[in-house]
Amino acid sequence: MIWHDVEQNTDLWLDIRPGKLTGSNASKIMANYGKAFGEPAKKLAVQIAVEQLTGKRSQNEAYSNAHMERGHEQESIARQLYEDEYFVDVKSGGFFDCGDTGCSPDGLVGDDGLIEIKSVLGHVHYATMMRNAVDPAYKWQVYFNLMETDREWIDFVSFCADFPRDKKLFIVRVNRKNSSEQFDMLYQRKYEFFKLVEQIKNNINGG
Fold first, then answer.
1. For 2-204, which CATH class?
2. Comparing C-alpha atoms, which of 90, 84, 97, 88 is closest to residue 116?
3. Mind listing the pLDDT tens digit for each residue in 91-145?
4. What is the pTM of this model?
């Protein structure tokens, strides 16, 4: 594992990622677990296969929309609230390069912790509060990042700017020691996914 101290969404960050399965795409490979991969995972496999063959990043990596931009803008606000609440300093998450995989947590806390911040709409934030668990939409990203970084815990931070000040954050901690089942599922699915990537590369090369 190699840790790169780079800022997310910069050209340098984008140039490190080609050919890798990253945490933000973990949910695509975990969908339909135990069954054949769905179309999003198949499309991702083609993208990664081509990136591995060319060494260049896909144009898909440059995609952005208004919701994503809002999330990036509000992430620093959420991070500051988290630091104030826990009396900690959150350092840059950078990029963890683990060979064919990698991840970019939103921050590092001490030597053992991570944070993953999601800026969400009010109804999503409320649902997370009522569930008292990680938003299912981000579950596999959270476990993937925890697994890949070898850290001991990760805080899933749901942030909604519209909520009262003392309710803008809702935090769910996931510990490594309680995650063996999810890690086993991820390991199995990663193995199957990269078999598909290799098959696609062979097909492209006429093998």
1. alpha beta
2. 90
3. 999 999 999 999 999 999 999 999 999 999 999 999 999 999 999 999 999 999 9
4. 0.92
Instruction: Decide if 94 contacts 1 (C-beta within 8 A).
Output: no
> Which DSSP string corresponds to 88-105?
--EEP--EEE-SSEEE--
| Cα–Cα distance list, 64 to 69, 70, 89, 156, 173 (Å) | 7, 10, 29, 22, 28
Distance CA 19, CA 49 (A): 7
Under 8 Å between Cβ of 155 and 115: yes
Averaged pLDDT, 178-192: 97
Q: In whole angstroms, give the CA distance from residue 197 to residue 3.
A: 24
Give the residue extent of every domain in the chain. Answer: 2-204
Share of the chain above pLDDT 70, in %: 93
| Cβ neighbours for 123, distance < 8 A, ≥ 6 positions apart | none
Q: What is the dihedral of CA 206, 43, 25, 60, to 10 degrees?
A: 100
pLDDT digits (tens, 9 = 90+) for 149-172: 999 999 999 999 999 999 999 999
Residue identified by tokens 């990043």 is: 57
CB 32 within 8 A of CB 120: no
Closest by CA to 150, choosing from 94, 79, 98, is 98
